[in-house]
Amino acid sequence: MIAMFSFRKVMCILITLAAGISANALQASTFFKSNDLIIPNQIQTTGELTAAVNCGNSANPVTIAGISFSTDTGNITSGGGDFENATKYTASLSDPSDPNGLNFVSTGIKSGWNGFIEIALSELEPGETYRLQAITGPSWSWCGQELILPVDEDSSGQLDSTFLNGSTGATADLLGGIWRCRNESETIRINFSDHDGSTGQLLGYVLHKLTNNGSGLALKIYSEPGLYGDSCEIDTFDIYSGSDIPAGMDNQAASILLKKGHQAVLGVNEDGTGGSRCYTAYATDLIVNLPAELAGDVSFVRVLEVNYLGKKGVCTGRDSPVNQQWFYNWGSGSSSSPEYEFVPMSWGKNGADEMSDIDYYASKPYVTHLLGFNEVDNCEGQSGQWYNMCDQTVSIQYFSNLQMAGLRLGSPACRENAVFTWLPYFADLAEQQDIRMDFIGVHWYDWGSNPSVNTNPDPANVFRRFKHYLNRVHKLYKKPIWITEFNANKFRERPIQDGFLQLALPYLEKLGYIERYSYFEPNGGFGTFVEDGELTSTGLIYRNQPTRPNQANNSLPLGWDNRDIGSPAESGVCYYSEGIYTVCGGGDDIWGSSDNFHYASFDAEGDGFITAKVESMVNTSDWAKAGVMVRQGLTSDSKHAMMACTAGQGASFQYREQQAGESDSVKDASASSTGWLRIEKDGNVLTGWYSSDGSDWRVVGSKTIDIAGGFKVGLCATAHDDSKLTDVIFSNVHSNWDKSVCDIDSDLEISLADLSLFSSEWLASSSSERKTRCDFNTDSSIDMLDLSVFAENWK
Fold it and tell me: Where is the signal peptide (predicted)?
């Protein structure tokens, strides 16, 4: 008999496992494992243990991650090898609103529109990976979702996540966020949201442990999406192609699991040419459902270990005494090591026209990247003067060959302005012919300022032009950038070079889309590193600049997400590395009754605050804005409050009281385009603060706004010009909604143990240049600003 329910009622299918565990043996808020399932503590009236809950109200069969079920018949079928023995599981129907039904309540699931799962950290094993499958609402459109949770090998409390399948129903973006909860149960909390970012409804879930039966090699390839189906493992260094790919997996790959510390190049042609992608698992394991152009068509695979090295390099020889961590020399003849990386270059045609060239690049140990042609745009000099290589239709043919080495591949590095005039057509040809360019190489010498005449400019103006140049390159290509040659120009004397570097180097270290940079010592000019055997002032500035690893990507901290709000003409992006956020935002404004901007945010509820320092903002308009925001939802007309710096109009506490209502603000004209910002929520009262130094704060404005239930908190940026992107660097981001920055011992709470660790670090290395776990503001020292961050989070 088919049970019929009203629109507001929910029909549930319970997959139950008869268990020999008494109800008295189970404790609240704990989880139990059985057959690679983590089972929440749910006892039915029969005493059976509920292993999974899948719900829906449609009579049509629904499929989620290999589990098929129908609320019409109650039949359960399994796929993808999830259940070792499907006959062990029985199915029954229940309506939770029926008092005569089984009347279950899943641990960690609230009723109504407030769905989340809490997973006990003590039950997640270090080094293992888990698969979460869930059914989410709203009730008129159930959706299947899947999430992969790799647990860090060194700390079971550190989770990364990969959202694999998305929704299969009418709504989208239902995964609202992941929180690390600091409470007695020590849990990971996974929230589910509606398509507009508001709190959604979770109907049921199952959590699997993905047992690793392999040898633990760097890459595992699966024949089906979501890490299902047949699989094989790939070791590092060697190239695997065609029938050499193990286990008959040639042209079979649909998803991959790449272990952290590795990069993998996957291509459709056996020689590595044609369509290919380079994936890098820099700090955490990477799980990817392959895009349509690769899925089922991979015939070339190469995996390499990543070198964890800083951005700072040189192009003047491997022995430069300036504490560089990588180098190149316009050729391919030097050696590399994990501590000091050599990056070969195919200077011109003669480095890309013979298979022996490709084999040589591929044979070099500890080499992971390959630089493209040098100034090939120049028909009268450099590599462009030979063999008609300055013709893009010619040079693209030889560039295609470089893919065969299975290395991460840089574009040709053009002369300064040619990145806007010559390279776009080359990039178009590469896209049309499925030729991979993983990053953009650039040269910059401020030639646009007429340096042979303008020999004594203000270094700040040179730096400003440099910032805008990088901004334009990134906006055009939306790829990471390597600056392989740059200086303030050979016609300018050392004080100009030094002043420029003192501004530029810290900026390059923090700017998220800059992966590498290499200063070029001017030929016949000023600004060399060494004279008479001693470091010059220029050399000392370069040597003393601390450097840190960076792999430009938009992998944000646990629980954070980023997206465009509204419809900016230029899509934004957010990069994160070691506490520094680079938010590249477009849009015409955050104002009026509807907004267009980029937002990096996390889920929050209740009272709290968020603080951040705006380090830098590219001035795309005097009204370009960068700030901290509390926002009810992710629609363009959502009510919100924010505290923002503008590029030329001071600071502003800005708000929208009602959805689709008009915006208003309170301005602080004395504030600069950089500084410390804070927004606090106390009940319905939201208050914006500004500080120039992070110590002396002043209130800019306050407003009562009914922001209730779950909401979004984070960092926002708008260019105030829909044709541009502004680049905003945020540091010192901390919030008592998200306290992980000061949870030094990773026990999921800020306690006396953390204070003890902070104190010992303070005493041991308060003036050290090295990074430490207590350098919250990443200024290479432990000082009063770090104490301020810790104290605010303690509250």
Answer: 1-27
